[in-house]
Amino acid sequence: MASQAVTPQSEDFSKWYNEIVYKADLADQSPVRGCLIIKPYGYELWEAIKSGLDRRFKATGHQNAYFPLFIPESFLKREAEHVEGFSPELAVVTIAGGKELEEPLVVRPTSETIIMDAFKQWIQSYRDLPLLINQWANVVRWELRTRPFLRTTEFLWQEGHTAHATAEEAEAETRQMLDVYADFAINDAAIPVIKGKKSDREKFAGAVHTYTIEAMMKDKKALQSGTSHNLGQNFAKAFGIQYVDENNLPQYVWTTSWGLSTRMIGAIVMTHGDDKGLRLPPKVAPYQVVIVPIYKNDAERTAVMEAVERLSRELLAANVRLTIDKRDSVSPGFKYNDWEMRGVPVRMEVGPKDVEKGTVALARRDIAGRDGKQFVPQDNLAARVLDLLAEVQAGLLQQAADFRDANIHDAASYDEVKQIIEAGGWARVWWAGTGDDEARIKEETGATIRCFPFEQPGGAGRCAITGQPAAQVALLAKAY
Amino acid sequence: MASQAVTPQSEDFSKWYNEIVYKADLADQSPVRGCLIIKPYGYELWEAIKSGLDRRFKATGHQNAYFPLFIPESFLKREAEHVEGFSPELAVVTIAGGKELEEPLVVRPTSETIIMDAFKQWIQSYRDLPLLINQWANVVRWELRTRPFLRTTEFLWQEGHTAHATAEEAEAETRQMLDVYADFAINDAAIPVIKGKKSDREKFAGAVHTYTIEAMMKDKKALQSGTSHNLGQNFAKAFGIQYVDENNLPQYVWTTSWGLSTRMIGAIVMTHGDDKGLRLPPKVAPYQVVIVPIYKNDAERTAVMEAVERLSRELLAANVRLTIDKRDSVSPGFKYNDWEMRGVPVRMEVGPKDVEKGTVALARRDIAGRDGKQFVPQDNLAARVLDLLAEVQAGLLQQAADFRDANIHDAASYDEVKQIIEAGGWARVWWAGTGDDEARIKEETGATIRCFPFEQPGGAGRCAITGQPAAQVALLAKAY
Q1: What pLDDT does B4 receive?
Q2: Interchain contact, B32 vs A105, CB within 8 Å
Q3: Which of A455, A478, A461, A464 is nearest to A196 (CA)?
Q4: Residue B205 or B41, more confident
Q5: E strand or H helix at A450, and its extent?
Q6: Closest Cα to residue A114, out of A75, A78, A80, A77?
Q7: Most buried residue, A195, A275, A297, B102, by CB count within 10 Å?
């Protein structure tokens, strides 16, 4: 844990991000190119993300399973778009047990192919459907440029894979799981994501269409934070997954897949963090409260620690996740900075005067300085702390939503788009362009279509780029 | 889910085991040599094992982290015994991103080397010690002969890695974590493991010594179910991990590692299973209770399902994990067999007469037939079920302990050892032999020293093999 100064966001956001990741003790660099070591504090954050998602997956009828890390090379080649999308990024095992393998094994970049092969065995009749599986796993994509959590060679994620009897059910599942992601992002991670559909150019390799949750980072860049794919019958046909329907006729299934990864950690850092460090939403914070005891001598220490232990027991009984910073080698001020860097939502200070008066000081991380600090009675402390944590949770979401809304601008022409993108915002435009138009915009401005948001203005307009009549708006932005 | 007949244990235990793994829906074969697909029912069992262990790791001050899947080949070579032990089993990535790698990357068979490299960066002073890390991960060992859960090319496990200031602390940690494993095995998995020390011949590659928990399977073979290694300063010296002590002098740290894997699923199957299928200890069972509604017509169905829903709500409120088998396509008898195959500890039957009389039937899986079945009032059902689950948990442990104790025999001579091993038991002998003696015994009888149990008779004896004075007893058995 270190509390050195950090490059301000306004000076160099990218540098700020890298410094925070390491200084807040989320991760460390590894000797393997593009691979990160997730340190305990970062891993606890991931565990909170996992448990928030896993609970929602199970509540919507999904079951976890585990499939092999290795995929025979021939499997990947069965779905043409899929192999084209992933083959440049593959890590390949060619030697095992001291011998060259007859067929090389690919380290999974995603598991559609090996899971579809299993689905083919498991699905015979309509009674076997829907089949709703999720896997928590590591995957490997050999990326040229990597950034901590946002794009790493190996990363941790979950990948859902489901099979359905009808196109409608598969589409409903694809939408449902995007809703699950959005619900988690908004209510747990306090990230006001925008739900929408990807353009054909940006969809998953092998999908009919891809839905996404897009988040605005504090540098106004977009971060794709979770995706849900309707795979139609593409994989069913490539792998021959058929079921016998109620009329005893063979039918191909309809499949979906959906994934969310450790990239979410990066989203949390870049949505909420400030120049003092992380600001973690209470629902996912490893510690919701840090207690800093303050004393100058042994007599004070005894009195203060007695109160600290008593109050911490009350908070633990109310399921508040907390830590007590008992270090004697550093000052209270150092501790404040240290825990601000780590983004603990609420700091509780207990000194000799608090013991005398039966109070404590509570400082919230989402509001800096005196405005965020209050002195409260020790009576009924757990209820007060729970209320305050809910306020911090809501406060972080509100700040992020305000920031997002202030930085999305309507644009009626390509010139306006260019101005908005250059100034670092998102442009909302009526869109009737082609994939080539997208490619040109990307080349000229660095922006891509993040999504066609589900929330549409209605009616029709004129495409900002082509001038053609347009039935929907798109969000354009630079992205990670 | 299938309920076909199973090969009896007495006829062919090995065949019985393989059939149960697949018929109880724990796992499926995969197209990748030696790799298993862990199906939802098996994965839920693994999740229960994980959570039972993770809770204990955190209670003893350990933190989870995550390190890269890939290890540079040169890292493995730094500890001489370690590389010698693992190199025949490695899977190696030689191509990534379409290019041949300059240095091949090994898919981790275990993570000592890459974690020690990180420890070197993280440890500077005595204040950084002890460092107590655990990782939940997949590992790969290219095994020649594989068996579901017991020995697979890829498997899931946890690996603890710790560093300490003194030899005493490292030894205490090594023992503590073995105690944690034994506590989990005995109290959660109902497996009466024996704690002991491995012989030098059987210790971990790179360890000073290895402790083990050994379990007796129902075919009387031993299964090493978890190991804890005192690594001394072997890895500290190989990786240059030094700290500055309180006198400002550089010292090498002392390290430990300890692991338990999905092999534990195999241990549960082979400790408790019978010819009808699995018998799962309630503490780790995905479902503790299955409710089978019984009715012949719609009127009965309505009355029965009302009671079932009401009672299931009561049980869920008491945190009982349950499922209701609502299938209309199969008979109650089929359902009984089906859930016996899956080893659900308690079956609850609710029929029209039960509704009338305000009763239910409870059948426990650990006691077959009428002896295990009772009719109880619906009043206060949750408390009754919780009591019964505790009885089943204790019953399974007692049965396994009785079986184990009945099959460990003292042997005073090599002839007696041979007889005991041939009859399929474990031989307990005074031991003063050498590694060569061990090798000869293995060749001649198939048995190995499973451990020198911590629980020793005291005093001294005469080695059953060499006739020399001996200070300790060893347990000899055939093993998986």
Answers
A1: 62
A2: yes
A3: A455
A4: B41
A5: strand A448-453
A6: A75
A7: A195
pTM: 0.96
Cα–Cα nearest to B165, from B245, B99, B220, B90: B245
Neighbours of A92 (CB within 10 A): 20
The domain defined by B408-477 folds into Translation Initiation Factor IF3 (3.30.110)
In total, chain A counts a number of residues equal to: 480
- Sign of the C-alpha dihedral, residues A398, A399, A403, A406? positive
Please name the residues in contact with B295: beta carbons below 8 A apart, sequence gap of 6 or more. B301, B303, B304, B305, B351, B352
Running DSSP on this structure, what letter comes out for residue B455? S
Task: Give dist(CA A299, CA A289) in Å, integer.
Answer: 25
Confidence label for B225 from pLDDT (cuts 50, 70 and 90): very high
- How far apart, in whole angstroms, are the C-alpha atoms of residue B357 and residue B355? 6
Which of B30, B32, B65 faces A38 most closely, judged by CB atoms? B65
State how far the alpha carbon of A442 is from the alpha carbons of A151, B159, B195, in Å.
Answer: 20, 45, 64
Of A31, A97, A156, Cβ closest to residue B88: A97
CATH class of B289-388: alpha beta
Quick one: average pLDDT of A308-337? 96
Cβ distance A24 to A342 under 8 Å? yes
Coil vs helix vs strand at B418: helix
CATH number for the domain running over B13-272: 3.30.930.10
Please name the member of A30, A72, A98 whose beta carbon is closest to the beta carbon of B68.
A30
Q: Label residue A37 left, alpha or beta by phi (over 0 means left) and psi (-120 to 50 means alpha).
A: beta
CA of B123: how far to CAs of B116, B165, B241, in Å? 10, 11, 7
Chain B residues lying within 8 Å of A44, measured CB to CB: 63-64
CATH of domain A289-389: 3.40.50.800
Eight-class DSSP state of B166: S
Helix (H) or strand (E) holding B461: strand B461-462
- Judged by CB atoms closer than 8 Å, whether chains meet at B138 and A138 is answered as yes
Burial of B296 (0-12, 13-18, 19+ CB in 10 A): exposed
ipTM of the complex in this document = 0.96
Q: How many angstroms separate the CA atoms of A337 and A73, rounded?
A: 51
Q: Which residues have C-beta within 8 Å of that of residue B443, sequence separation ≥ 6?
A: none
| CA–CA distance, A125 with A250 (Å, rounded to integer) | 9
CB count within 10 Å of CB B287 equals 22
**Other C-beta atoms within 10 Å of B251: how many?**
17
Region B326-351: mean pLDDT is 96
Distance CA A178, CA A228 (A): 6
B35, A104: Cβ pair inside 8 Å?
no
Chain B nearest CA to A15, separation (Å) = 22
Q: What is the pLDDT of residues B283-335, one digit of tens each?
A: 999 999 999 999 999 999 999 999 999 999 999 999 999 999 999 989 999 99
Domain residue extents for chain B: 13-272, 289-388, 408-477
Q: How many CB atoms lie within 10 A of CB B241?
A: 24
- Burial track A235-264 (b if 16+ CB lie within 10 A, e otherwise): bbebbebbbeeeeeeebbbbbbbbbbbbbb
- pLDDT at A81 (0 to 100): 85
User: Collapsing DSSP states into helix, strand and coil, what is residue A244?
Assistant: strand
Question: What residue type is assigned to position A392 of the chain?
Answer: V
Q: How many helices (H) and strands (E) does chain B have?
A: 14, 25
Domain A13-270 has CATH 3.30.930.10: yes
Q: Cα Rg for chain A, rounded, in angstroms?
A: 25
- Per DSSP, helices labelled H in A322-477 are 332-341, 352-357, 381-406, 414-423, 435-445
Let me know if the fold of B13-272 is the same as that of B408-477.
no
